[in-house]
Every structure is written in C-alpha cells, then in structure tokens.
C-alpha cells in the first residue's frame, strides 16, 4: 500500500465546501459503490488467469486490496459530508444487483485481449479521479483523488506490462488490439454507472425513487460535469499505448483527441 485510509484526517473535511457540489458528491457515492464491489471482478479475473501465479497474486494482494481501500476511503469521506446518508443500505441494494453482472462470460476471448480491455478500464478510472481532483474545491477530497489517481495509473502500467508479456505468445496484430480497444470503449456496459447512480439517487432522494426520468437527468448532469474537466490528451495516450504505434502516427492521433472524449465518459465507473 502506498498510502492508508487510516492516515487521512476526515475530521478536517470542509463540509460547507463539499456540500456545495451535489453532483460531485453523487459521483463520489457511485464510485464508492463500484470500488467497494471490486472483489467480485478480481475473483473473476483470478479464475480467468488461473495458472499464472505471479499475476493472480498481484490481483488478489495488490489490485483488489487497493481498489477496496479506494471504496473505504470514499465511503469515509461521504460519511463526513453526508452523515445521514445510509451508505450501507444503499450499497447492499447496489451489490445485490451488480453481482449479477460480473461473470466470466463478459471477459474477452483471450488473455492478451482481456489485458487490453483492462488498460481501457484503468484509463477510464485514472481519468475519473484526475477529473474529480480538478473539480474538487475541498482540500481533503482533492488530495484523496490524487492518491487514488496515482493507484489507478500504477494499475494501468501493470496490466500493460502483462499484456506485452501475453502478446509475445498470442502475437496479436494492431488490428485485433484496435478492435478490442474500440469494442471496450464504445460497447462497454453502462450498467455499472447506471446501477450505482440509481441506488445512490434512491437513497439521496427517496421521494423520487422509481422515477426513471429524474434519474436520467441527474446522471446526464454528472456526465456533463465530468466531460468539462476530462483529461482527454492523457487518456488518449494511455488508450492507444497497446497499439505500439510509430511516434508520427501517435502525434497525428493526439492532434485529434476530441474523438475520445465521449467514449471515455462512458466507462469511468466500470470494472
């Protein structure tokens, strides 16, 4: 662990500043739910990579542990800002529904391709916490988002290194890698985000529970907030790295970074 949630002084949170941004708090709640359910996806990946003891050990002992710590830290922050928010009850409802979506059938067909997908997901999560840090006007949250962002970038680097290792055997061409990148970024499930936000909104606004139009409007507002601060260039660099493109081609793609903004906004919550 590069940091410990116990070392963060949540009693120093500037509650007035934090409560001023309702949409950001909703985003944090949704993110805390998905992070806190990371062990489901970790177990699925460990099963998929059975036999690779080193990688499975990292998934169990590092990746899963750090993702769950992200969930605990975000939960603690939410508790400091919204003490009346029943996080446990809302998370239980989320988890019961979310657990049904985490299955091996949703992984890619080969290990190298699944690691490409992992790079896409970690690009999304690192972009999410970079965005939260930029949007945060409350110092404790800004520092916490920076710590989680650094973890997610580290996770990306590990998945990318294992992708290169597996691809030495699978020898995927750029076209196959590109298809995996595109498939995961354009066709990725919005279920994680929608399930999390729906349960957060039901707990925060119980009088509007069961109102799909209200939920859709609030989710759209949160997405627009993310879009305004999304670190597109950083995200594109991470996204295209598995393609191992010549430097000249990379420069051309980076010059047209706007194409990636909307797809990136679709997988920020995903695992």
Quick tags:
271 residues, mainly alpha, 73% helix
Describe the structure.
This protein is mostly helical. The model has no long low-confidence stretch (mean pLDDT 90). The two termini are 20 Å apart. Helices cover 73% and strands 0% of the residues.
Give the low-pLDDT segments: none
Count of DSSP H/I helices: 13
Q: Tell me the Rg in angstroms.
A: 18 Å
Shape: globular
How many DSSP E strands? 0
Could you say which structural class the secondary elements and strand pairing correspond to?
Answer: mainly alpha
Distance between the termini: 20 Å
How helical, in percent, are the residues?
over 70%
Percent range for β-strand residues: under 5%
List SSEs in N-to-C order. HHHHHHHHHHHHH
Biggest sheet descriptor: none
Short description:
By secondary structure, the chain is mainly alpha-helical.
Topology:
Layout: H1 15-19, H2 22-36, H3 38-48, H4 53-81, H5 87-98, H6 111-135, H7 139-170, H8 174-187, H9 191-204, H10 212-229, H11 232-240, H12 247-254, H13 261-265
